[in-house]
């Protein structure tokens, strides 16, 4: 089953994804999309690692998420992708003057997801509730994140919204 877990920064969405994986009885695999490009991100990644028990295996997939999911998915595993919005930012940063990188990787992700075995939790930020950003790239990021979340929600059997650590089911069972 695919679960999409949405929320704002520090809402508890990653904790909910970990909880689902740890109570599933399946082998937990963390698919990390973050890149440690500065000291603050190194610290964030370290905090996330410390929150996971030794039972977790971590796979880094900052760009080629579909390929990593195909390689890691199995009936006995619960994959947690944390998070789609960092993956999107990485891909948009790779594009330069072209939009082909993100379009290709996004198409690969949505082609792969429906046929993957096991359980998958996709963690993503819900960022479209604020003001419209001033810059072109910022507006594109907000637009693409919204469309990415909508596409993931269509595929997911369960969609959860997390705010202040409280989980609200939007689709499927909590």
Describe the overall structure.
This protein has 174 residues and is α/β, with parallel strands linked by helices. It has one domain (2-171): Rossmann fold. The protein has six helices and seven strands. It has helices at residues 13-22, 39-51, 65-72, 84-95, 100-112, 136-155, and strands at residues 2-7, 27-32, 57-60, 77-82, 119-125, 158-163, 166-171. A seven-stranded mixed beta sheet has the order 3-2-4-5-1-6-7, with helices on both faces. Strand 2, helix 2 (39-51) and strand 3 form a beta-alpha-beta unit. Helix 3 packs parallel to helix 5 (100-112) and helix 4 (84-95) runs antiparallel to helix 5 (100-112).
What's the layout of helices and strands?
Elements: E1 2-7, H1 13-22, E2 27-32, H2 39-51, E3 57-60, H3 65-72, E4 77-82, H4 84-95, H5 100-112, E5 119-125, H6 136-155, E6 158-163, E7 166-171
Parallel strand pairs: 1-5, 1-6, 2-3, 2-4, 4-5
Antiparallel strand pairs: 6-7
Task: Give descriptors for this structure.
6 helices, Rossmann fold, 24% strand, 174 residues, alpha/beta, globular
């Amino acid at each position: 089953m695919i679960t999409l877990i949405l929320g704002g920064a520090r809402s508890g969405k990653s904790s909910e994804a970990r909880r689902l994986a740890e109570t599933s009885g399946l082998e937990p695999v963390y698919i990390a999309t973050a890149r440690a490009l500065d000291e603050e991100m190194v610290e964030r990644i370290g905090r996330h690692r410390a929150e996971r028990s030794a039972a977790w295996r971590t796979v880094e997939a900052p760009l080629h998420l579909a390929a990593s999911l195909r390689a890691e998915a199995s009936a006995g595993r619960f994959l947690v992708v944390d998070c789609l919005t960092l993956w999107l930012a990485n891909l948009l940063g790779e594009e330069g003057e072209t939009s082909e990188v993100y379009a290709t990787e996004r198409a690969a992700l949505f082609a792969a997801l429906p046929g993957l075995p096991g359980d998958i939790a996709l963690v993503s930020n819900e960022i479209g509730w604020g003001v419209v950003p001033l810059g072109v790239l910022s507006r594109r990021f907000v637009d693409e994140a919204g469309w990415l979340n909508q596409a993931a929600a269509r595929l997911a059997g369960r969609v959860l919204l997390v705010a202040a650590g409280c989980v609200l089911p939007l689709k499927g069972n909590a």
